[in-house]
């Protein structure tokens, strides 16, 4: 694993990756926690993990956690079925049996559901990098319009063992990797890998925007991604993994089963870093746009104040030379609105390309400003000469 250099990390502001905690009961009090492997990998890859506590009402305060440069969702209880299914296809007897077999997972936590669904939808809407592990992949699929098996054994009739409480960390099953997907590349283009498995639910109907990356022997999807939103170097990452690559380690060791296990986190953080840079550049451009608007409003206010004043021919010419009339100001504002659509397209450009464009337009602004000053000075000189001639 590549560990980020301490000196480099301390010299800059790192991207913020939100991770929602899981709640457990300890000594009659609730305790929030996040698996340390997740936190270690996020830090070692060069980002700051920001833990969102599972606290009542926190879903309405998520704006206070901004800026958000990435979201990682991982372990937790079963997702409330009402979020993806109108009614259960399982009988009451079957549901009772499932609760007995998976008691630690079947206690629905609606507050955690609300927090994580809000974050997932925010990432889908604003193109924020997202990595879902296990439950997190299920949240992503549901947020995008997919559905889940409420219990794989009951609904899929599988012979593949997806959870082994007696051999929790050592249990593995086969997973067929789909060619030409990120997962295939990360794992050295292996057609099949052995993955861990800690779940009794999984993807039933995959949301239409996603493409499968791996399948279990029973056909259950073990990983998926959005190919349109996968370009880590451009700040784009949208992926769900049903297995836990962070826990795929050799027995009694911190060494990974495969070198590709940590790559999901590395590529995810790479996308978060780029997304942060794009946000910063976007903020700078927004500030410049606001300054331009303030200047245009200042001219409009000047004209409005003089609207009822009889102007001399000289004053009218002066205003025309400045390119400012009430009518032109309105036209200018409409043009600014049209340019907003062009600016959205520019968001897809790289930071380097945007910097080059910004430098060019600054140079053009200076040239235009100098030309206007020369024209105004020439106009004033001609006016003075004309007045002098009349006085003479």
Task: Characterise this structure.
With 392 residues, the protein is α/β, with parallel strands linked by helices. It folds into two domains: 6-275, Rossmann fold (3-Layer(aba) Sandwich), CATH 3.40.50.880; 354-392. 45% of the residues lie in helices and 15% in strands. The strands form three sheets. The chain has a nine-stranded mixed beta sheet with strand order 4-1-5-6-13-12-11-8-9. Strands 2-3 form a two-stranded antiparallel ribbon. Strands 7-10 form a two-stranded antiparallel sheet. α8 (263-305) runs antiparallel to α10 and α8 (263-305) runs parallel beside α11. It is elongated and about 95 Å long.
Provide the fold topology.
Elements: H1 6-10, E1 16-20, E2 22-26, E3 29-33, H2 36-45, E4 48-52, E5 70-73, H3 92-101, H4 110-126, E6 130-133, H5 135-143, E7 147-149, H6 152-156, E8 173-177, H7 182-186, E9 192-195, E10 202-205, E11 211-215, E12 221-225, E13 238-241, H8 263-305, H9 313-321, H10 326-346, H11 351-391
Parallel strand pairs: 1-4, 1-5, 5-6, 6-13
Antiparallel strand pairs: 2-3, 7-10, 8-9, 8-11, 11-12, 12-13
